[in-house]
């Protein structure tokens, strides 16, 4: 819809800034006003409510109520709070990961020294420096409990050491997947063979002595056998259980677990040789303990060779990674 508007004024004014007459050579002052009464100027205005498709829509301005009640440019108290909030909005994962890596890194540094110290204090120091006379009071239950307490103390230190080693073997970046390491079947099979052999060999000889076999005479009392080999059999069972747990959890410490226990087992059997002399054990018992020492030294050597093989195997895999990626 359009409408035409005509103003009531019929007068038109023209303002000339400066006029010069060429004939009369007369200068007229500036801003001289001439009025033409007979000239009628018409102003026409077209108002249309329909907007064409190529025109931009009109801009409407609306007044908003002042809800801040006179507070202009409200912001946090300090500039650092604003920066921290902006950084957390832009990259929260990066900041969280960096803080986590820093905390984990600071925690892991003391473990490299604390873990071996715990293992040394709970296992080697009591066995090497504690006199046997203060532990062994004779072939009785008190001596058996004292020796078992020493081995339980070592087992506690070994468990703490393995937990620290497992924590150090994990990746530093929190975004990465946890390290999973599954031992091969042949490794698990031969470890079980070595552990079961360490069980069967002394028990068979002791049962032969109980049955009165000629090779295993004179007879060894049960309490003396428990003092000599009872803690050894108990710690061997704990080692088997710990190894099976590391295999089930696929922890990278499965390669270190038998080495830790077998080193202490050699010292444990050497302590049994000293106690055999004080108990007056028969000759076949002393030879049996010596055979166990040789057996576990052999098994320990194989375990150390496996550690060297595994280190070379992983180094070979790392060398092959760039070629496969290219």
State the main characteristics.
single chain, 326 residues, mainly alpha, two-stranded antiparallel ribbon, 8 helices, globular, disordered N terminus, transmembrane helix, Cytochrome P450 family protein, membrane, transmembrane
Task: Describe the structure in your own words.
The chain crosses the membrane at residues 109-129, 141-164, 185-207, 219-238, 292-312. Keywords: Membrane, Transmembrane, Transmembrane helix. The protein contains 8 helices and 2 strands. It is mainly alpha-helical and 326 residues long. The protein has a domain at 119-314. α6 packs antiparallel against α7. The protein is globular. Mean pLDDT is 74; it is low at 1-32, 34-43 and 75-98.
Tally of DSSP helical segments: 8
Strand content is under 5%
Strand ordering within the main sheet = 1-2
Mean pLDDT: 74
Q: What is the number of beta strands?
A: 2
Distance between the termini: 74 Å
Rg value: 48 Å
The rough form would be described as: globular
Sequence of secondary-structure elements: EEHHHHHHHH
- Helical content (DSSP H or I, runs of 4+): 55-70%
Main sheet record? 2 strands, antiparallel
The chain-level structural class is mainly alpha
* Poorly predicted spans: 1-32, 34-43, 75-98
Layout of helices and strands:
Layout: E1 12-16, E2 32-36, H1 79-90, H2 92-129, H3 132-135, H4 141-168, H5 185-211, H6 222-249, H7 257-279, H8 283-325
Antiparallel strand pairs: 1-2
Helix pairs in contact: 2-4, 2-7, 4-6, 4-7, 5-6, 5-8, 6-7, 7-8
